[in-house]
Amino acid sequence: MWRKELQNNITTIAELDDFQDLSKIEKIKLKKVIERHPMSISQFYASLIDWKDPKDPLKKMIVPTCDELKLSGSYDTSGEKSNTKFFGFQHKYEQTALVLATNQCASYCRFCFRKRMVGKHTQEVIQNFKHAVDYIQAHAEINNVLITGGDPLTLSTEILQTFLEDLEDISHLDFIRFGTKVPVFLPDRIIEDPDLIELISDYNRYKKQIYFVLQIDHPREITLELKKAVDILKRAGVILNNQTVLLKGVNDRPEVLAKLQNTLVSIGINPYYVFQCRPVKRVKRQYQITLEEGLHIVQKAKTFLNGHSKRFKYVMSHRTGKIEILGIEDNNIYFKYHQAKKSRNFNRFFHKKLDKKACWLDDLA
After folding, report:
1. What SS3 class is residue 280?
2. 313: alpha, beta or left, given left = phi > 0 and alpha = psi -120 to 50?
3. CB 314 within 8 A of CB 294
4. Is residue 1 over pLDDT 90?
5. Domains in the chain, please, with CATH?
6. 41 burial level (CB within 10 Å; 0-12, 13-18, 19+)
7. DSSP 3-state assignment of 339?
């Protein structure tokens, strides 16, 4: 059933035109956009959008615009190429292995930091999972694996079972994570596949702990269907964390960000990270806000949050590491390495002179 739903995704400009009136010029420009970066919107997610509102935040996240023709930015803002050991496998942080299991998602976010590969022909996805297993077995410092993409939950349950079975006997692995937005875009993938839930439940009970790292960016993405999927996953023993990208015109008001975090906690999802939007090519101009604005939003939002809902860290995923953005004082902006590629940066606290236009560490002198 969920596979048939995926086959009905909105993928062409003609299909998009059924939802919103596009001018002839817009159609020509948007066709150029999706030829470079494909469009895919699940019918379920499309049903959540207020198509009459030009500023609808869900629409902004998922519907291509002519702004994507602006080329400023980079396709590899976090240095993924330099951390790739072989196709589809990265090892940036000592304890974590990252597997790019697919280049497909249940829908394609327009702000995706892997925009370079999602929905496109690419050699960046894993070619042979056994190679990943061999590497992890040979590196005892790795205690967790993040299986991501794309979205691994768009793969069949049989393939996911193979992944888990291949990893279960590695003694130094403590837990396995799946990065997914399927509960948002295609909750039936969870709700209507008892085999997936049985697989996860058995693995959690008898083998290793499974985490799902969700990406929920706006309160309206927390639907009744998502809540049902979350309840099923929790009953299967999955621990659910959420990461949110701070996005211009989507969740860049303190009240919206606070509502999101509070609602997540109320349904048993742990706030994990709020990411500064990366300076991705065809993304940064329309989605990035300044570091100063981001700090103001996060700090103001935390005044509406309790201890559980404000556990997240406001970070940027920089090529040198995951850097927590702490605050501004005396015209300086302060940072701390939460994760670091090089050991000399572990827990390093540092500051830069504030530039009110800066959106990324590299923008600061």
Report:
1. strand
2. beta
3. yes
4. no
5. 2-363 (3.20.20.70)
6. buried
7. strand
